[in-house]
Amino acid sequence: MSSMRNAVQRRNHKERAQPEERQKWGLLEKRKDYKLRAADHRQKKAKLKLLSSKARDRNPDEFSFKMLSSSVDKRGLKVADRGNEALSMDVVKLLKTQDAAYIRTILQQVRRERAKLEERLVLEEQGEVQLVRDGLEEEGRMGKHRVFVEDEEEQEGFDADAWFGEGKAMPSASTPEVPREWESESEEEDEDDEEAEQRPQKKTLSARKQKEAEDKAKALKKFEKTRQRAQSRTAYRLAMVKKKERELVAAEEELEKQRAKMSSSVGGINKNGVKFKIRERKR
């Protein structure tokens, strides 16, 4: 009979799905899901019960020898040893001496830099700094050219004007080169231009002077603006150097105080905030 029962086609079992009005809550929890959730809840409940029993049965007067070597800070937190070895007093004094020497060396460098910046700022305020690279002294800038001669006599009789000339006929980098076939035409045009220029020469000279005056005013304005920017940069850098100098002086004074306290030559305040002074010999 059992074999016949198994041979008959049966209806497949389907678990109930989540109703349509509860689709927003997700899938319907099945038995296997409930078992896992219940087991996790029982485990957490047992842990909480154990911890509460330990806290309830704890003895506040319980003694441990570890309490003798451990300590706590002002907030009640345990101060643990990091395993660092404490240095001897002689080694600490030597290190502080080297630190003071290093700070003194850096302080000397900063003071020299401060003196240079102050001198530079005074020169910039007086207008003695000439900014040649801004194009104000283009005429004064000249390159160098070296000429080799046979002996000293030729060197003494060397005429630079005859060798180099006056430099008026030398083409500049901005002047375009004229082809040879255009030379004759350019000469004729130059003659016509010279005749035309001789007529309104007075007007051209006045216009040229006015243009030169305008260019000079523009160059002077540009120079003044550039000088003001340079002064502001120098002043800011000087302020930073002075701040660094004050910090180094404060660090040097603090090191001197620490060295004096280590040598028991001055008093002070201990870590508990209590003032103390060095015992002096009674007179």
What does this structure look like?
It is found in: Nucleus, Nucleolus. The chain has helices at residues 2-7, 31-57, 66-69, 89-126, 152-156, 160-164, 183-198, 201-262, and strands at residues 71-72, 78-79, 268-269, 275-276. The protein has 283 residues and is mostly helical. A two-stranded antiparallel sheet has the order 1-2. Strands 3-4 form a two-stranded antiparallel ribbon. Strand 1 (71-72) and strand 2 form a beta hairpin. Helix 4 packs antiparallel against helix 8. Mean pLDDT is 77; it is low at 129-141 and 170-179.
The radius of gyration computed from the alpha-carbon positions, rounded to a whole number of angstroms, is 48 Å
What's the main sheet like?
2 strands, antiparallel
Low-confidence stretches: 129-141, 170-179
> What number is the mean pLDDT?
77
Tally of helical runs = 8
What is the overall silhouette? flat
Query: In percent, how helical is the residue content?
Result: 55-70%
Provide the succession of SSEs. Answer: HHHEEHHHHHEE
Number of strands: 4
Label the structural class: mainly alpha
The N- to C-terminal Cα distance equals 125 Å
Report the β-strand fraction as a percent range. under 5%
